[in-house]
Amino acid sequence: MFLILSGLCVHIVFLASVFDIYFKSPVVHGITPQSTPPDPPAKRLVLMVADGLRADSFYETPDLYLRSIIQNRGTWGVSHTRVPTESRPGHVALIAGLYEDPSAVAKGWKENPVEFDSVFNESRYTWSWGSPDILPMFAKGASGNHVYIDSYNPSAEDFSGKKSTSKLDTWVFRKVEGFLKYAKTDATLNAKLHEEKIVFFLHLLGLDTAGHTHKPHSVEYKENIHVVDKGIKRVEELIEEFYQHDKQTAYIFTADHGMTDWGSHGAGDKSETETPLIAWGAGVSGPRPSRVDDPPSPFSWSVEHVARYDVNQADIAPLMASLIGVPVPVNSVGVLPQDYFNVSEHQLAELVFTNARQMAAQYKKKQELIKAGTLSWLYKEFPGLSESKEDQLLNEIKFHITVGRYNESIALSRELIELSLLGLDYYQNYYQSLLLTCITLAILGWIAWLFQSLISDGSSNVRNISLLDSYSNRKKLLALVHARFCVGGYGINIAFLVIIILTIALLALQVLPLQFYVYCLLPEFIWWAVVRSKATFIEAFHNLRRSMGLKKLSMLLFFHILGVELLVLSFFYRFILSIAVLGLALWPVLTSFSKPVRSSLLLGWMISSLFLAVFPLLPVIGREPNTWLVCVSGCMFILLAIICAWTLASPSIVEKKLQTFSVLLVQPLMLVVAIWNLVSVARSIDDKQGLLQINQIISWSLLAISLCLPLMSSRRMLLRLYSVDLSLIVPFLLLSASHEGLFILALMMNMFCWLLLEHHCADSAKNKLLDFAFGIAADKSVKERCLSSRDFRRAYFFFFYIFLSFFGVGNIASINSFDPTWVRCFLTVFSPFIMTILIMWKIMIPFLAVSCTFRALNIIVQAPTEKLFIIVLIFCEAMCLHFLHLVTNRGSWLDIGTSISHYVIVQTTVLFLVLLYGLAIVLTDISLLEAARRCNFVRSKYEESSLSLESGGGKQIMNTNPSLQP
To answer: 160: which of 64, 479, 579, 602 lies 20 to 30 Å off by Cα?
Structure first.
């Protein structure tokens, strides 16, 4: 228990550390907004964001009103977004100019983890219409009550295809039209609308819903583009009419993220990170002929003759702020795209200078915070932008503007912006080397501590300290205990105490955050515990060398290191998993078994391994949904279920015929119903009838029943595994979109062959597999035997199957991406919480299948489960050490998002496995019928005792108790 609790705390620290090392919050408080130049080019701004609109889908659509704007009135380009390509991070980048705070992950990108400045906050008034998922977060972050929102009901976001997705957009356009009509009759509102520095925000969610439901190349998606185009044309006409064509309105049309061909987003595919950007109206430059150095446009876009100006998504925030003359949001990292402006050279120089001052103020505040919290003799200033150089650049820019050298001033402003961004990055990662060193030492120390726990039961159980080799000599035992707790104790304690005191003093003098104390002191405490137990390591190594030989020990270590490295590589190259599975296929050939293995079993192992090795070579799930492929896998499961039921229904293993036969018959029938329901849902959605209520009821009923049926089956090992696997398959198929059903079929077949092969090479091979059963009694019968090299192999196989389950049909991108096809049998109305739970359950199902098989294996081979989990933990920590140093906050945002996902996955794996194994114990050990019979037995005994008391016992008590005598 101590190891579990300490492991939980340590892994929480390791997991949190990566954000402090690489991804600290970009929000810096206490910055004063920079003043803006007078006479902005526009009085008002209309921002229109088409959620989920791809750049290529939009620019390839002919006969659009916005295409005529590109060719005649405005400036266009591609806005490059960052990972994660989700709605909240995209809108924060657009409107606040900063890329998402990593702490928002914990809140699903929906709430404001910290307050941030935005263009809406700096505006005089902002009116917005659209989705209830996006609008509130900008109203919440705004100071005062000048941001007004009007959103529709969340139930309007329907992915069933029954309702037209364009209705979400027409709702927004109707609301804007009604709002402007009402403003003509309301003097107060009319007066507000005629002030300067106001913003209209139209959030158009229809395209995102259409892309999820019908895919981006569908007719519905293209029709929705035309609906948005016509709506924008109508909104522009209404606004120009309302303001009597005063030519003081600027318009910006863009998208928060794109969408893959298979209707998902969240990762870094080009179709997800490239979105359209069109600007026109007051202060915006008109079309210019394309130049050689312009970004090339595909011929299919038919706009290659017009100059294209690409931007980063955060650059749109200073563009909007500069157009209407409000301060650039204080934490914005956007660089003003000067090619979009149609203003005088003097105005442009002033606008770029304002952007430079905003960036420099942000850099200076960050520098002050770091300098104030660092001892003077330890502080290292950013060499690229010292305080004197910053003042020099600011003075030179002002001078050039004063004397009319606008090109020189713009060039110097750009230089100041670039240096400020580099400085921000420098101070953002100021403590990176220190923290990275501390966490690396902590992980290495934790691995050493785990190894010490593996070879020793601890001080409370000195009779069997080493599980690798038991001591027969009492003197050796006492010598080991003395070495662990006495030898060098004072010297080691004093040395570590001095180091800890010095560390605390340095941290306190620099007034560093509390988490720094944890990161710096953790490795010192861990290594203090490890060094005190050095005699245990030395003795264990000698025992291993004597029992196994140095050559065999080196080979064992080599193969396990190679296995860990293969798993690390599989995170980047999925085909490595296929190579590893082919390597596992050769295992029975290289292993000696206690009795001959049937050729049919070897053939089954080889075929299932080859079948399993195919899936990492296939495209990730979500590319294109294939309902019939899911049905094929379901039919194969039904066939196998019938064969297994026929085999398991023999009288020799059936304890309760009614109970067993009911489960053996009901679960294959549930599979049949699930397949019918899956086909029915696909047809109804394709026919635009939506998710029928009867299908929804059947889906949820099958999910609920499948969770309960295993608990009603026999605890005989094969019967319970049969029941558990079928109960997991039913919801998995309902949540499947393509070939993942075939993958879990191959995985379960391969693991069953693994179970049979381990039974052959176990010491308990003389017992028939049919004789084993789950339950508390089975756990008590497991002997505390010595660990062997086979146990290390079994632990690695379990570890490998877990990662194969995770990456066998997907990768980081596919898991981060959202596709409503996965949950369409259960719901089609957008509900992030329920959808997330269903998708997480689907991801957990292969893990549970592996965990239940591993539990059965532990009972068969009588393995010490806790020690096997420590071995798994050592493997996992070795991978964590790799991924800690592979995390990056530079380069493409696909690389950044992927690197942090790798580290988080590995860190949470072991904690997740402990929970999974506990759930596997529930699924395999608990029997509801036995619990009911036990309750009935207790009740009957109680009733019998009550009757006996009433019939004779009560009189006897009265006669023998003097106080009750009359």
So the answer is: 64
The Cβ of residue 199 has, within 10 Å, a number of other Cβ atoms equal to 25
Is residue 101 within 8 A of residue 113, CB to CB? The reply is: yes
pLDDT range class, residue 82, cuts 50, 70, 90: confident
* Residue 872 near residue 938 (C-beta atoms within 8 A): no
Confidence check: pLDDT of 549 > 60: yes
User: Cα separation of 905 and 918, whole Å?
Assistant: 19
Which helix (H) or strand (E) segment is 147 a member of? strand 147-151
How far apart are alpha carbons 537 and 557 in whole angstroms?
16
Mean pLDDT (whole number) for 649-672 = 67
CA dist 247 and 44 (Å) reads 10
Q: Give the separation between CA 332 and CA 358, rounded to whole angstroms.
A: 8
Structure tokens given for 76: 């266009």
Q: Assess whether the previous peptide bond of 84 is cis (omega < 30° from 0).
A: yes
- Which tokens hold the place of 521? 């002191």
CA atoms of 747 and 734, how far apart (whole Å): 18
- Tell me how far apart the alpha carbons of residues 648 and 665 are, in angstroms, rounded to a whole number: 12
76 CB contacts (<8 Å, ≥6 apart)? 70, 276, 277, 278, 279, 287, 303, 306, 308, 309
Q: What is d(CA 181, CA 185) in angstroms, rounded to the nearest whole number?
A: 7
C-alpha closest to that of 454 among 902, 885, 877:
877
3-state secondary structure string, 588-635? HHHCCCCCCCCHHHHHHHHHHHHHHHHHHHCCCCCCCCCHHHHHHHHH
- pLDDT tens digits along 217-237: 889 999 999 999 999 999 999
Q: Are 39 and 256 in contact (CB under 8 A)?
A: no
Of residues 902, 906, 908, the one with CA closest to residue 886? 902
Name the 3-class secondary structure at 158.
strand
Task: Convert the pLDDT of each residue in 687-710 to its tens digit.
Answer: 878 888 899 999 999 999 888 888
Going from the C-alpha of 745 to that of each of 502, 576, 722, 849, the distances in angstroms are: 58, 21, 13, 11
Q: How far apart are CA 249 and CA 239, in angstroms?
A: 8
- What string of H, E and C letters represents the secondary structure of 413-429? HHHHHHHHHHHHHHHHC
849-867 confidence digits (pLDDT tens): 999 999 888 888 887 777 8
The structure tokens 């009750």 sit at: 964
DSSP 950: I
| Alpha-carbon span 220 to 207, nearest angstrom | 9
Q: Which two tokens stand for residue 251?
A: 């318009």
Joined together, the tokens standing for residue 866 give: 């806790």
Scored b (16 or more CB within 10 A) or e, 587-602 reads ebeeeeeeeebeeebe
pLDDT, position 951: 59
116 has pLDDT over 90: no
Query: Which positions ≥6 away from 31 have C-beta within 8 Å?
Result: 330, 331, 361, 362, 365
Q: How far apart are CA 405 and CA 413, in angstroms?
A: 12
Angle at 868 between CA 865 and CA 869, to 5 degrees: 90
Task: Sort 476 into a burial class: Cβ within 10 Å, 0-12 / 13-18 / 19+.
Answer: exposed
Tokens linked to 649: 């229904």
Range list of H helices, 687-817? 693-708, 717-734, 740-761, 776-781, 789-807, 812-816
pLDDT tens figures, 805-843: 888 776 544 455 556 778 888 988 777 778 888 888 888
Task: Give the pLDDT confidence score for residue 234 in this predicted structure.
Answer: 96
DSSP string, 461-514: -GGG--SSS----HHHHHHHHHHHHTTTHHHHHHHHHHHHHHHHHHHHHTT--H
Per-residue confidence band for 746, with pLDDT thresholds at 50, 70 and 90: very high
- Cα–Cα distance measured from residue 803 to residue 112, given in angstroms and rounded to the nearest whole number: 34
Decide: 254 and 79 in contact? Cβ < 8 Å: yes
Closest among 899, 617, 646, 653 to 768, alpha carbons compared: 653
Predicted TM-score (pTM) of the model is 0.75
